[in-house]
Fold this protein.
Amino acid sequence: MTDLQRHLTNDSDVEDSEARPFAGFVPDDRPREPRKWHLWAALAATIIGALVAWLIVTTFTERQALADARQEWSSAATVLNEQIIAGEGQLDASEGKVADEQVRTDLSGILASARVVVALEPEGTEALLEATDDAASAGTDITTAVVAVDASVERRGYDDALTAHTTAAERLATSTSSAHETLAATEGQVLDNTVRETLAAAIETAAAVTPVVPDESADLAPQTQAMTDRTPELIAAADGLDVSRQGVVDAQVAWQVEQDRIAAEQAAQAARDAEEARQAQEQATTRPETSGRSSNTNSPAQVQPKTSGGNKAPATGGAPSASAPSAPAPAPAPAPAPNQGGWVESGSDTWCFEVDTSGVEGTGGWC
């Protein structure tokens, strides 16, 4: 029971006792002062107590809210700082590796704004809550920008892998075509056919290495890895073809050198044979002039044999000199041998192939 209730109860008892006197009670006829101040005091005490309680509760609530806000800000600032560090690392790692440099520019600007937020020192619950919201928003922006940078890096990696892979595939196709042409063109034109067999084996090996077919509508990362792994195989196959093909080309060159040497020897021999034939023909067609006593041509009819007495017969015919005894008629000169011309007497300056003394008086020969 409160003080007010007790006061009210006491007053009622007084009034009732006055109204209903009991035996032996002597009423007091003196006027009494009303006791209403007790009511006001009790009411004031109640109000003050309620205010004090409200103040206590309010103060506690505000302090608790402030503490909670500080805790939230601290956590948000810590997370944001970690995101800033991660974003800076991604910014450095992606330099020169993005398909679009604008994404790195955007990330750099977002990181700068986030550093300003994390450096705040807010006071008061409202300021702390606002700073916490800013930190969360900055963290979201960093995450979005980092994802964009990652995607651009992935795209750049795919593009680079595709370029290298396409180049290697085109080179392999060219090497394969050249290898087929060389193999077909050198049949029977090498000294050792082993090099051509090696080239044929290299063509079969290269045919088993197929390029990756890109599909940009699918996930890029697995394709990038597949092309990165396959590109060295394409290059190795092309290198094998080129080396084997060069071996065949060198063998063909060596074969051609040998053919040229044989042809040169044959040409030289033919030239020697032709020169010997020319010299023989020139010697066969030469008609040397007579020397010594004969001044005529080397015709057999113009060469005059000696007479038995040592005198020559008249060049124009007729009887011999009266003082000279008659001599028997000379035997006819022998027919010229092959490759021989007129009759030349021995001792003349004219060189003859052979000397024949048969059937003619004196010594001489057909030249």
Remarks:
- Residues 160-282 form one domain.
- The longest strand covers residues 343-345.
- The first helix runs from residue 3 to 19.
